[in-house]
Amino acid sequence: MIDFKSTLKIAINSLKVNNMRSMLTSLGIIIGVSAVIIMLAIGTGAQEKVQANMESMGTNILTLRGASATSGGVRMGMGSTPTLTTKDAHAIRQHARGIDALSPCSSQSKQVTYGNQNWSTSIYGIMPDYFYVKNFEIDAGRKFSMEDIRNAANIAVIGKTIESELFGDVDPIGKTIRIGGVPFKIIGTLTPKGQTGPFDQDDLIFIPLTTGQRKIFGTEFPNTVDQIVVKCYDDESIDTAIEDINEILMKRHNISQNQTKDFEIRNSAEFQEKMKSTVNTFAILLASIASVSLLVGGIGIMNIMLVSVTERTKEIGIRMAIGARAWDIRWQFLIESFLLSIIGGLIGVFVGITGSLLVGFFAAEMSVKISLFSVFLSLGFSGLVGIGFGYYPAHKASLLKPIDALRYE
Question: What is the DSSP string of 302-342?
């Protein structure tokens, strides 16, 4: 029967004899555990940030765009040919199933001026439901009404970036800006949504679709739009909505089953899933790279334990001579290795949490999220490393013969 209490006491005393060497041996584990926690915190934070950004852009959304134009044998990309109209949007709203709301939309980049300030930004001609579909909320003032749409009113709702660049600390509500030389009265500002990749969701201006078509965009055909954004009730409604939209538009555009469609339907859910998968892969890659240092730390423990076995050969011989068995010796060195690793792991957890908080503090644009899973994972892995890399030295020590060990110099 192994006396764990005595074996543990001997192992602790052995580590205390060489305090500095024990600490340096644990250094690799400390670095490895802290690196894993920091990398997973960055990866988890990035995942949550991407999720929040995707949700801020709207969920369960379908984007309908026009066909791909060809110029000189070169395909110009989807949306380059205007084939969708406001009447298409009306037909979809009336007849397609699973649709919560939709809005036709057209956009162009224009120069905007206010007093002696100017700014180049994207101008979106939209219907009132666009705010709901894309999760835009009014911070101050109001949004458009259907009466504004019918009257093609010269009014605008602006994002926070526009407000900051053109007005500074001045309240923009009621002020008049010029878009391409045309005056527009600001009736509302949007709640900030932040950056999504390269796209600043606050650097835009919304105007009534009819106003944009008649006075800003120079649309060749009055009812033509760049795209139609559709919000479905839920994930289960998406496939039904896509099926109905395809049927409605093919019928309205006189397209047979054998012909190429002059429109495209993009599903935001698919894009969001790809983004999540990419971020997950990135987080796993970061953690895998960081875990290499844990393995390096384990190799360091094994080397030091082998040296320790050699240095303490006579001590092992004396213990065996007075009755210690091979298992007693093996457990002693295994416990020493495990203690080195788990103590290094606990210190590494503290360093990792502190490092993650510092990253979040000094890199405010970087989202950091510390999870209990990453703490327990790295700590558990450090314990396994200690046992795994400590087994060979412990096994080697247990195979020593008492006579040979006592005669070792």
Answer: HHHHHHHHHHTHHHHHHHHHTT--HHHHHHHHHHHHHHHHH
